[in-house]
Structure formats: structure tokens, C-alpha cells
């Protein structure tokens, strides 16, 4: 065991993994460079502890940077140790977890250190879609290492000491730390789409443990299935009141009411995360119009409109699920697109990315229409025409070109108020009624809200052996 066994880096590993399960590898590795009298400094483990262990008996590979050794900077051997973790993880089909606390690339090693940084990027890219990659920022994570955290599938940040940045706040024109600390967890979680959650060290490590137990170890496991102890036919009460906030909806239908949300603070109008249905891990993508706190009080409201950030968030999540054969459940409640000049700059590309992700995914896909599903925004949210295997809806859902009143005003622009009301009712009965979409085959089943859980379980069980072979191509262009 290295002399860093009492360091924060080792303590974090001990708290993350099952007791006495960690096996350290490469503990005697030290820096090779002798420039600038580097040999005079002791570099135990060259500032990073690597090895393997268990999380709830699931094999994982871990590297934890030690800021007490040259600031945890990345040098040649430091990088090689991290690269070796990736090599082992890919051979064994197990997740990689990086605990980051680093002052940057080691200046004394110059191009050797830069070469090492490139090796880390290359290993992360090779592992993408093969094994889950998780990182947690406990100290500084700046410059090139910020890219390494973004290359991971999931990233967490410690609220007080965690700092994640490409450029330090004071290096940004017209900005300083006191004005806007762009490196802090709250800024990163809300604005970049990199951070999944922020909290204390113990909270982060607990969330990583929970995440590992819901994800497959690699892309060859055909998703993840565990034993279910919850009632498969459990009625879901008061579902209608939850449809605006899918966090409550998903918690209600999930095994043991457990919903693991991702990117919690980013694009809150689009909810992503994982649930289990009869032990099968399912990825959920849902439109949100309201957000509640833990006491059930409304804290935020949103338009029933697709936004650029929300679509980008959804696209990344769908692609992740598809890479690991995790079934996707979409929940549709949208009437159009965010109408601002800022959104318009990014919306076309973001909408295309999400549409492509849904249509391109070959994993099992179920779309559930919980509210309004109007226009092109409905089509983009995993509709039957995009390739959804099954589409379910509640009886009070509406599916069509637009809401009935707006349609009546367009078709009968010069009509009186009484005529508009009459035509709106006629339009809703003929065009927006959910039964009309079902008669045309665009909806497979209209179900009562209380029966939502059992029908979703049955649907995903039926789709468990789904196989799709598409055209031969290297990869898509989106």
C-alpha cells in the first residue's frame, strides 16, 4: 500500500466502495522526470491512487487524485496510471469512477504531461459507450481536465470546494469571482449541462453508489435487470395531478418509488433519469411544466414548450441509453417551441439532435402522452412516426396540430365569439381528441392513470428481446 493511505484521496475511495474491497494497483509508481529538481520532491503514487473494488458487490475501477502530492497535477506516470484503469475496465466490462482534485497539467514535465493528457482523452473516447464513466469534482478541475470530466457520462461536484472551469473566472473578460464565480457548482450545474448533481462529499459518494447499482456494467449486458420486490400491479393513485411534474410521476410508477434524476439543475423543463420497472432499468425523458420541492410546494413553472437546452439534454441522455441497451420511456406534454430570440439561435440544431436521437435509437422505446401533444413538437418527442415501439395515452390527453381555440381562430378569423367557440368544440372532437389519434393507429392504448405502472411493465417486458438491424453505415452525422 502506498504512503498515501491516509490521504483524502484514499479516504474518498474507502467511503465510496464496499468495506475492505479496494485493491490498489501501481502504488510504487513515481514521477520519472528529473527537470527542475523534481526528484527532490517525494511523489508517492505520482499523485493518483488507482485500483478496483466493489459497490454493492458490483465491480468498479477507481482513480482518485491526491492534491497533497504536487497538487494532484497530471504528469506522465500519473496519466499512465489513469489510462491503465481504463484498459482494465474495458477488459472486464466494469464502470470507471474518477475522483478529481487536480491543479492542472504538471509544468515540470511539459510535453510529457501533455502527451499523458491526450492519452486520457483517447482512453475515455474508446470507453465511451462501452463502460459507464463517472467523475466527481472535489477540488480544482480546470483547463484540460474539465474536458476529461465532460467526456464522462455523469459528473458530480462538491458544493464548497469543487471548482470546474476551462478558463478561471478572473480570466474571463468583464468578470471576476465576486461578480460571477463560473467555476462553482451552482453555476456549472445550472448552465453547462455537465454536472448531474452537487452536494457534500458524502452526498456525492452516496449518489454515485446508487447510480452504479442502476446501470449496466458494460454495453454487452443488454441493459440491467435485478430482482423486483415491489407489486407489479400496484395501482398508482392521483397520477393526474402529477403530470405537470414528471419527477412525481416517475417516482410513483417506479419500483419502490425510486427515481434517480440526472442533470437536475440544467434545463429543468426537460427531466431525465432512471427508474426500474420489474427490476429492468429504464431511462426516462419527460416534458415538465411545473417543479415541486420535497414538501410538494410549487417552486417553478415552465411553458409546455421545447427549449434548446432541454433538447440537448434529452439527446445526450437518449444516446447514452441506446449505447447501453437501456429502454427509453418518453413522457410527452408539449404544445410547441420556446419563442425567444436567444432560443431561436440554437433551437433548430437542438431540435434536430433530439429528433435524431429518438429516431436513431434501436433500444426499446415507449412514448406516454400525459397531457397535450400538439404540432411538430409532439412528433419530435418519440412519436410513433419516429419509431416508438408503443404509444400509450391517458383518456384526457389531446393529440393534434394545435389547441382547438387557436385552430378555430385561424380557420375562422372573421367569425364571432359564439361561432369560434362552436368551431373550437368541433375541432377538438374531430382533430384533437385522443381517440381520433388511436383510431388512426398513432396511439396503441388508452389507459386509466391508476393502471400506468402495470401497462408500462408489460410493454417493456414484451420489448425485452427487441432486435433491429439498420442500414450499413459508419455512424450518423448528428
How large is the count of helical segments? 14
By secondary-structure content and strand pairing, the structural class works out as: alpha/beta
Under CATH, the homologous superfamily of the largest domain reads 2-enoyl-CoA Hydratase, Chain A, domain 1
Domains, number: 2
| Low-confidence runs | none
- What is the second-level CATH architecture of the largest domain? Alpha-Beta Complex
Gross morphology: globular
How is the quaternary structure best described? single chain
Q: In whole angstroms, how far apart are the ends?
A: 46 Å
Write a structural description.
There is one protein chain. This protein folds into two domains: 8-212, 2-enoyl-CoA Hydratase, Chain A, domain 1 (Alpha-Beta Complex); 240-394 and 447-462, 2-enoyl-CoA Hydratase, Chain A, domain 1, CATH 3.90.226.10. The strands form five sheets. Strands 10, 11, 12, 16, 18, 19, 20 and 21 form an eight-stranded mixed sheet that branches. Helix 2 runs parallel beside helix 3, helix 3 (110-127) packs parallel to helix 4 (144-151) and helix 11 packs across helix 12 (417-432). It has helices at residues 8-16, 76-92, 110-127, 144-151, 185-191, 201-212, 246-253, 308-323, 341-360, 375-380, 404-411, 417-432, 434-439, 452-462, and strands at 23-25, 48-55, 58-65, 96-100, 133-137, 140-142, 154-158, 163-165, 197-199, 260-262, 270-277, 280-287, 290-292, 298-301, 305-306, 328-334, 336-337, 365-374, 390-393, 398-400, 445-446. The radius of gyration is 25 Å and the shape is globular. It is built from 14 helices and 21 strands. With 478 residues, the chain is α/β, with parallel strands linked by helices. The model has no long low-confidence stretch (mean pLDDT 90). One of its GO terms (molecular function) is transferase activity. InterPro entries: AccD/PCCB, AcCoA_carboxyl_beta, ClpP/crotonase-like_dom_sf, COA_CT_C, COA_CT_N. Keywords: Transferase. This is Carboxyl transferase domain-containing protein.
